[in-house]
Each structure stands twice: as C-alpha cells, then as structure tokens.
Amino acid sequence: MLSIGTVVLTVEDITRAGDFWRSALGYVNRREPSEDWVILDPADKPSWNAPGASIALSVTGYPQHYPPRIHLDLYAEDQGAEIERLLALGAREVDWDGYPDDADYVVLEDTEGNRFCVVDVSDRRPEN
User: Fold this and answer.
1) Which residues contact 92 (CB under 8 A, 6 or more apart)?
2) Are 124 and 19 a contacting pair, CB within 8 Å?
3) What is the CB-side half-sphere exposure of residue 96 using CA atoms within 13 A?
4) Which domains can be identified in the chain, with CATH numbers?
5) In this protein, which residues make up the domain named VOC (predicted)?
6) Per-residue b/e over 27-43, b at no fewer than 16 CB within 10 Å?
7) Residue that wins the pLDDT comparison between 86 and 4
C-alpha cells in the first residue's frame, strides 16, 4: 500500500522558501540543507518514514508554470488569522476569478510562486 511521504516543491531561492515553509507549518529541517535540496518534516515526526507528509524544496532552473498542475490544501480553524499570518511571512494573494459563491478556501502563493489554498475547516463535519 502506498502513502504520501513527501511533496516536492520547486523553488529558485531555497533559503527564502525554507524560511517561509518552516514558519508557515512549524516544520523543521530533516537534516542540514544543501545548496539545492532540503526536506522539511513536522516537528513531532519521530522518523523519516513515520506518518505525516513532509515537504521537500528543490532548486530548479526553470520557471513555475501557471496555472500549476498541483497545489497544497492547508486546513485552518481560523482562516482569516492564518491568511494574515501567511501574508506577513511573505505569501501573496492570487488574483483569481474562479471562486464559487460558496468558496471555503482562499488561493495564495508562497515566496516562490507555488500556489496553495487555505481552507476554512471551522464548520466542517467529518466526511464519511
């Protein structure tokens, strides 16, 4: 059986991106970053193969594609406060006209242009 171990995001500035994602998610470096690669784990993850998705940042020589074909959904109990916090860390709002009227998410992008959604889960019931 497969499970998601690591989501890899391409970046141009690994220091800036690492600072953003460590602050955004409270993740820590698995080991010392190289010039072009770092893996970030949840702070309480006991081993590299324990449950809990990690994020890796990989320096690439090509620009981001828009719209991206993959993005992260980050769940928030207090969506407004999390969006403010992420914007203060360097995230940017995405000017996007595709929101449905009842959207429970807001699209942002990190310091490198990788998009992610901040999803309001405060009123959600568990899915079956």
Assistant:
1) 108, 109
2) no
3) 18
4) 6-120 (3.10.180.10)
5) 3-121
6) beebeeeeeeebbbbbe
7) 86
